[in-house]
């Protein structure tokens, strides 16, 4: 049985993961509007990953007989002043999620809940990748600056992203 403080922290993290998906849906729309199809595709895959993260938390709660208490998801920003600003916002958001996971890990440790700590190990590693992915793109965007040719090539590279195994929420719910 999960302790109430862990249960409520897990519920808060489900909200964070769903907000992440919501934010990235807004970015898909932004990139589509400015015709950066590769960035839009990259973000579509990111939306699926975020939904899969929320499902992982949800399934873990169910397996521990936790009580779900779903809260409203805040509306994200829907416009950015440049593609670089959008990627910077994505990177900043991932740093925020890393903080959330680290705090959750600390709570599980304080509550002497090794099962939850072990469950969170996957997310600790995932956040290293999430931060690296977005910060690499921010660095590349800065190199390209406003050169249309560079932006075109970078967008083609972003279009090559494929969904990672386990990024399908339906599949992750089954495991
Ligand atoms: Fe982007 O890692 Fe979940 O929220």
Fold and architecture overview:
The protein has 175 residues and is mostly helical. The protein has helices at residues 4-33, 37-63, 83-110, 114-144, 148-158, 169-174. The two termini are 20 Å apart. The mean pLDDT is 93. Hydroxy diiron-OXO moiety (OFO) binds at residues 17, 20, 50, 53, 94, 97, 130.
Number of helices: 6
The residue fraction in helices comes out at over 70%
Question: What's the average pLDDT?
Answer: 93
The radius of gyration over CA amounts to 17 Å
β content, as a range? under 5%
By CATH reckoning, the class would read Mainly Alpha
Essential attributes:
175 residues, mainly alpha, 76% helix
């Amino acid at each position: 049985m999960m302790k109430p403080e862990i249960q409520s922290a897990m519920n808060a993290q489900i909200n964070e993961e769903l907000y992440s998906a919501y934010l990235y849906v807004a970015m898909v729309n932004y990139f589509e509007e400015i015709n950066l199809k590769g960035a839009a595709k990259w973000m579509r895959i990111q939306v699926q990953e975020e939904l899969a993260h929320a499902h992982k938390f949800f399934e873990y709660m169910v397996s521990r007989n936790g009580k779900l208490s779903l809260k409203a998801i805040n509306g994200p920003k829907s416009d950015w002043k440049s593609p670089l600003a959008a990627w910077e916002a994505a990177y900043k958001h991932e740093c925020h999620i890393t903080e959330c996971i680290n705090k959750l890990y600390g709570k599980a440790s304080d509550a002497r809940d090794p099962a939850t700590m072990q469950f969170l190990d996957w997310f600790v590693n995932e956040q290293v990748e999430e931060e690296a992915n977005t910060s690499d793109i921010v660095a590349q965007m800065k190199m390209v600056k406003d050169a249309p040719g560079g932006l075109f090539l970078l967008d083609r590279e972003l279009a090559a992203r494929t969904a990672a195994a386990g990024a399908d929420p339906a599949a992750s719910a089954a495991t």
